[in-house]
């Protein structure tokens, strides 16, 4: 979850005199870095995924499956190889996986050891690397412990939802449901928790709609969900606030008509799947940032995996609004006034400087900027849009300031800039290169919910990489007014949006008008000529180029051919576009085998989008609703949850099939892998200079018209 500086964090009060300075130094640092890296070019795609896992403790006697809070010690063991490599103690160590702490003590984050590169053969490494990650975690767990790639634990916040249970109402979160002892011990995390609460002047206040079943009561208790009033977990420190325990007891009598949550752990304790892409240069990076933002709600809906939390079925399918609420540090005045969104939310501004981006049409929501930052950025030679982007990030306060890291060399350090940058958690992130590294400009895609199996997570990661190639190679224009992307974010929350939701989407996604799909030259030296078969003639009915249509995910992914009384409208669909792109690359026989393997992932995504396969949320909801003990009361009981966690575990190991969720794709195509050495061998082949082994390059180079 971003920057993990070690040090002594200041309290919110003590950080007050330093906050402006940190922001001002952050801008100075950005300006120095920008000067050094603005022209940096890295004409080789590099990319990587991030998967967040949850640890679960099974108790067969009591039939419970609770979150296991042993992640910090597991992460320490997982990081041994990396530490040995960094320290130079062991030269033959192979680091194919990297591990990072996340917010909650049940969470582990894993990434590939080195980023993938641009060759199509790299794509065949993704699922194997994910399998290795899962095996490495599993190898450190006890017999009763499971590792699941689970977006939201359905009973997060119920009484005794962790093993061992922890006392609630600690001094950092003051939550009725979660404990400060659930927060990762790195000081950044608890300081964030406390300072968000202090800055906004109250606990975070999250309300999600309750799913109403036949026997669901109109109002549900705020605290005691399965027990008599008064028997919540004991508070951690009754003495910190004389009224603390009383507050919980008062809340016990209270009821609400929605599912209320009151701490950062509800959102930041959820898991997600992210993909970071290195771009050729800053221009491509800005373009991809914009284009991928449009796609963010679409992928959020397709990967939906959060139908329940706090033991209740929700009337929504995704985590986003929960996590946005869980770190919303705005004061009531800010929220009512100039600052429209939480620090964790969709972006407010497109930033590309290309012709296709028409600010007057597309940047249609008011954005607040830090005026001082904006002026300094403009004076420092940063163009208007980029200056607005950075100055918009800088409307936020630094939430964690380390006393021992206040003094930085603003010409070389980026710590104060990163402080603000890494606590703006948006759908996409624009990442400037660290000046002292070899890294290029990067865009991070952040909206996806994590899926149960490596196969699914690999499929969605690969899909995003290939979509990014298509966007660049075919010069796609996905722009729509940014307010419409916000509407799509809310549509993505609707129950079963993947099947029945209709999303705003652009009718004509080709920059140069219908049918003008450009050929492209890649670094293999060949000109690739895509041959595209349209469902029918495109007819824009005289509509402006930027006209939008309401489309289903099936139409957006698989294409559509709508005939109305007055016009035909054909939309090619992401999957056919990607196949066309791969086809254009794959004329060489060596690539065919790899491309047909990749095709299986695309078939899977296509089947998800056309409803043949259910979303994870739909399947989980169905599991709960058809469980023999379900009382049609929207409750995910310990018993239902226990069976659910076991089933997900068996699926992720490839021991069972769940056809509704993964069809016959998995475990049939499961990539097995148990050792880093095995992966290293394959990776060496991929790294080979022999084009036969590594396959064609996905990099597109220039576009020819
Ligand atoms: P975060 O900002 O989310 O903490 P990290 O910098 O830790 O992100 O990296 C996230 C992802 O970026 C990982 O999947 C990693 O493999 C990938 N990555 C690392 N270096 C590069 C690079 N040069 N280009 C593209 N992706 C990279
Ligand atoms: Mg993370
Ligand atoms: Mg990330």
From TrEMBL:
Protein's pathway: Sulfur metabolism; glutathione biosynthesis; glutathione from L-cysteine and L-glutamate: step 1/2
Secreted is among the record's keywords: no
EC number: 6.3.2.2
An MF annotation (GO) of this entry: ATP binding
InterPro entries: GCS, Gln_synth/guanido_kin_cat_dom
Keyword presence, DNA repair: no
Superkingdom: Eukaryota
GO terms of biological process kind: glutathione biosynthetic process
Sorted UniProt keywords: ATP-binding, Glutathione biosynthesis, Ligase, Nucleotide-binding
Similarity annotation: Belongs to the glutamate--cysteine ligase type 3 family.
Protein name per its UniProtKB record: Glutamate--cysteine ligase
Organism: Rhodosorus marinus
Lineage: Eukaryota, Rhodophyta, Stylonematophyceae, Stylonematales, Stylonemataceae
